[in-house]
Amino acid sequence: MEIVKDLKQALKESYVVLNTLDSNSLNKIPNNVINFIKENMDDKYDFKIDYSKNLSDQNLSNTTLGIISIIYSKYLCSEEEKKKWETYDNFVLIKNEELKNKKFPKDNLFNKNIKQDDFKNNFNNTNNDIIELKSNFFTKIINKIKKFFHKKS
Structure pTM? Predict the structure, then answer.
């Protein structure tokens, strides 16, 4: 429930911010996007913009910043800016993939020759000890009885 409340408040903040745009910029945003924000925002949440501050200095939630950045990148920025954002996004994706590949190398993913110590060093976690399960006397008897009845079937 808390996530839904935060999202509704972020939509309200986004709506207030979008209403500060000039009509030319506001017309670039499709009506269905604005209607979606209007219909799903928290009407009871009171949010006001301080016009003496820049947008980056406002007390906006991270969710609001994300919504505004998506709207900006999809509808308001120029083609040149879109290409820059796309290049930046691709750069970040490549860097994240490189980090994942460094942490989890594909070459050794199913390699049976990896020693337990190497495994621990790769993941920087010493709590991954291999535990040998030992069965007690009662479990051994039950297993022998099960084997006996499965052989007869």
Answer: 0.58
